[in-house]
Amino acid sequence: xxxxxxxxxxxxxxxxxxxxxxxxxxxxxxxxxxxxxxxxxxxxxxxxxxxxxxxxxxxxxxxxxxxxxxxxxxxxxxxxxxxxxxxxxxxxxxxxxxxxxxxxxxxxxxxxxxxxxxxxxxxxxxxxxxxxxxxxxxxxxxxxxxxxxxxxxxxxxxxxxxxxxxxxxxxxxxxxxxxxxxxxxxxxxxxxxxxxxxxxxxxxxxxxxxxxxxxxxxxxxxxxxxxxxxxxxxxxxxxxxxxxxxxxxxxxxxxxxxxxxxxxxxxxxxxxxxxxxxxxxxxxxxxxxxxxxxxxxxxxxxxxxxxxxxxxxxxxxxxxxxxxxxxxxxxxxxxxxxxxxxxxxxxxxxxxxxxxxxxxxxxxxxxxxxxxxxxxxxxxxxxxxxxxxxxxxxxxxxx
Length: 399
Hints:
Blueprint: H1 10-19, H2 22-28, H3 31-34, E1 37-45, E2 51-58, H4 73-87, E3 96-99, H5 122-132, H6 135-145, H7 147-156, H8 173-177, E4 178-179, E5 182-186, E6 189-194, E7 197-198, E8 211-212, E9 215-217, E10 223-224, E11 228-229, H9 238-249, H10 264-275, E12 312-321, E13 324-333, E14 338-347, E15 353-354, H11 361-381
Parallel strand pairs: 9-15
Antiparallel strand pairs: 1-2, 1-14, 3-5, 4-7, 5-6, 8-11, 9-10, 12-13, 13-14
């Protein structure tokens, strides 16, 4: 694997340090402990409203592993839409999608009580992925893609370091290589049947093992006093996640081989679900005490569970697992005419034991994201813009 230079922008560190609380200062001063990486993207519009992007980096290193957790659901959702479009017009995102089983560990889905129609569909799965980071919805799109097709599609776009090897349910390596047969139905008639698939893909795993922590609980609830091995787990470097999000929000801004081949309706659907809040959804209807406004929006808002002001929308995908917290977002403030992108990952696991559900998410993780978000947002509010961005295209109807 090529050794990549760690990317650091002294200006960004200075900006954060200048405004940082003692908590944020202590995190920033311990990059080895907290393993944070941060990308702040300024967006400047030219006279034709064309956006130009300037990335500022802090501790960004594509060879430093972090567990991407649910953030891998984002490229999987995009790739699944692209594949659906390749299958042809008779199948749409609303077409009923039934999942069968053909190998050990596989489960079936023939109904969905949270959908208005009572039937599963790609649209409904994507909605659940972005609104509340639903694991089963991700598993079903992983199965629709097939492990080989999924990874090859992302590698072809230039994301050579991405590795998506598994569902989010306990399965062996072999079981994750096998994906389910799937049927698409229209009025009860099968219009397309996808046979089960097997992935013979050879992944390029790093030459040295990826070991995290000093101990971990295994699936049988035994404490193993050695690090947890992440060598074959999912991998999504921060820069790649940020670029993938940008390629969906601003397709014209990335080289054409990196774009996903989506329709105008696909984009509208994605933008809506990426920015919709759980209380705005009728199907599924979410319990907002559990799925509060900022349940999956880490920057600014998570700690304290406060409401997100109605003039701000966050288009994002977050993930949390094993003490790692990650969020990729694009923030739009309609009132103050502000837009920017922010991506970060952080590791909070004081005792070094994984799988014990003792991580400092509430004490350190979410406050870190909120404070970094606040400092960057405040910086943006005080920037004089040569061209005021037209943010009207980012207004959507939620129901």
